[in-house]
Design a protein that fits this description.
The strands form two sheets. A six-stranded mixed beta sheet has the order 2-1-3-10-4-11, with helices on both faces. The protein has helices spanning 6-10, 12-20, 48-54, 57-60, 73-81, 92-100, 144-155, 170-178, 191-195, 222-227, 229-248, 250-261, 265-269, 280-287, 296-309, 326-330, and strands at 36-41, 65-70, 87-91, 105-114, 118-122, 136-139, 164-167, 184-188, 202-206, 215-221, 275-277. The chain starts with 5 loop residues before the first helix and ends with a helix. It is α/β, with parallel strands linked by helices. It has two domains: 6-113 and 212-330, Periplasmic binding protein-like II (D-Maltodextrin-Binding Protein, domain 2), CATH 3.40.190; 118-209, D-Maltodextrin-Binding Protein, domain 2 (3-Layer(aba) Sandwich), CATH 3.40.190. It contains 16 helices and eleven strands. α7 (144-155) links the parallel β6 (136-139) and β7. It holds the Pfam family NMT1_2. This is Sulfonate ABC transporter substrate-binding protein. It is found in: Periplasm. GO terms for molecular function: ATPase-coupled transmembrane transporter activity.
C-alpha cells in the first residue's frame, strides 16, 4: 500500500508502445471525447471518488469515468505507469519514483495533505522517537511512512542506522506490530486502527508534526493531459463538487466512504483531523512556487532528495512539467 514502485515504473518505456496500440485514454484521437480510467485505493483522501461516482457527480460535469478500486495501492501505481489507467490517486513520493523510472506523469490536483493519519506507533514502554534507538521498526520501505520515520528520527537526533528497519507491506507491518514481532510500526489510516489495537500502544510521531510533507494527488498520464484537456478539467471540477457535496451531506458521505474502506462510520470519523482535504484556495496556494513546505515545488525537491539518499532511485527525477496548475486555476467551485 502507498508504495514506491521504481522497478515497475522503469519498464514503462518498454510497455508504452504496446499499450498505445488500439488502447483507450491518451491513445485515443486527440480532442475526441473519451472515458477516463481512474484508479484509487485505501486512503481517506481518495475515498471521495467513491462519493462522486455514487452521487452522479462525474456525469454532472460531463465526463465518463471508469472508476477502479485497488485493494493493493502498488497495483494502481503499476497500472498508471504501464498505460492501464489514465489517472490515479497517489502520493508525491510515488509519482516522483515513477517519473524517475521513465514514466511521464502530471499532477493536476491536490486531493489532501496527511495531517496525522500517517503515524509511527510504538509499543508500551517506548514513549518518544528517541526511545527507538536500537529497536526494530516495521515499515514499507520507500513509502511516505518510511519518509515520515526518517524525518522523525532526524528531528530526534538519530539516524536510520541507529534503528533496525524491517521492510513489510503496510498491512503486514501493522499485523506484525500487533503480534509483538516488532517494537514500532510506520502506518497510515486505516491500518493505524489495526496497529493501535495493541493495548497500550500509541503514536509517537505523526504527519501532523511535519506539515505539508505528505501530499496526495490526482495524477494523469502526461500524454492524456495533452490530448484530453476537457476531460481533465471535468475531473478537477468534479473533485471540488464532491468536496462541496460531502460538506453538505456529512453523514451520508461518511457512510459511503467508511463502507468502501471496510471500517465503521465511527472509526472513519476519527480520520477527519488526520487528512486535510484541500479546497480550491488551498490548491492554488500549493501550486504556487515557493520555498516553504506548503509549496509543492519545494516538497518535490525535498522528496526527490530523500529518494536518492535512501537509494530508492539512482538519480533525482526530472521535475519539469510535473506540476500543472492550469486546471485548478480554471476551476470555479
Amino acid at each position: 500500500m502507498r508504495r514506491v514502485l521504481a522497478a515497475a515504473a522503469a519498464f514503462v518505456l518498454l510497455s508504452a508502445g504496446a499499450c498505445s496500440e488500439g488502447g483507450d485514454g491518451a491513445a485515443a484521437e486527440a480532442g475526441a471525447p473519451t472515458t477516463v480510467r481512474l484508479g484509487f485505493s485505501a486512503w481517506p483522501g481518495w475515498f471521495p471518488w467513491q462519493v462522486a461516482q455514487e452521487q452522479g457527480l462525474f456525469a454532472k460535469n460531463g465526463v465518463t469515468v471508469d472508476l477502479t478500486y485497488f485493494d493493493s495501492y502498488t497495483d494502481s501505481l503499476t497500472a498508471l505507469s504501464t498505460g492501464n489507467l489514465d489517472a490515479n490517486s497517489q502520493t508525491l513520493n510515488d509519482t516522483l519514483s515513477s517519473v524517475s523510472g521513465g514514466a511521464q506523469q502530471t499532477i493536476v490536483l491536490v486531493n489532501d495533505n496527511s495531517t496525522g493519519n500517517d503515524q509511527i506507533i510504538a509499543r508500551p514502554g517506548i514513549d518518544t522517537v528517541a526511545d527507538l534507538k536500537g529497536r526494530t521498526v516495521a515499515v514499507e520501505q520507500g513509502t511516505v511512512d518510511h519518509y515520515l520515520l526518517l524525518l522523525a528520527l532526524q528531528k530526534a537526533g538519530l539516524s536510520e542506522a541507529e534503528v533496525t528497519v524491517k521492510p513489510l507491506l503496510t498491512d503486514a507491518a501493522a499485523a506484525a506490530f500487533v503480534a509483538g514481532q516488532v517494537d514500532a510500526v510506520g502506518a497510515f489510516a486505516p491500518f493505524t486502527t489495526t496497529a493501535l489495537g495493541l493495548a497500550g500502544s500509541k503514536a509517537i510521531a505523526t504527519s501532523a508534526d511535519f506539515p505539508g510533507a505528505i501530499p496526495d494527488h490526482l495524477v494523469f498520464d502526461a500524454e492524456f493531459v495533452k490530448a484530453h484537456p476537457k476531460e481533465v478539467q471535468a475531473m478537477v471540477d468534479t473533485w471540488f463538487d464532491t468536496v462541496a457535496w460531502i460538506n453538505d451531506n456529512r453523514d451520508a458521505a461518511i457512510a459511503i466512504m467508511a463502507k468502501k474502506g471496510g471500517v465503521s462510520d465511527a472509526d472513519y470519523k476519527t480520520y477527519d483531523a488526520g487528512t486535510t482535504i484541500f479546497t480550491h484556495e488551498q490548491n492554488l496556494a500549493a501550486f504556487t512556487p515557493g520555498q516553504t513546505p506548503a509549496n509543492l515545488d519545494f516538497q518535490a525537491r525535498s522528496i526527490a532528495k530523500f529518494l536518492v539518499d535512501a537509494k530508492l532511485v539512482d538519480e533525482a527525477p526530472p521535475l519539469d512539467g510535473l506540476l500543472d496548475p492550469t486546471f485548478v486555476k480554471a476551476a470555479t467551485p
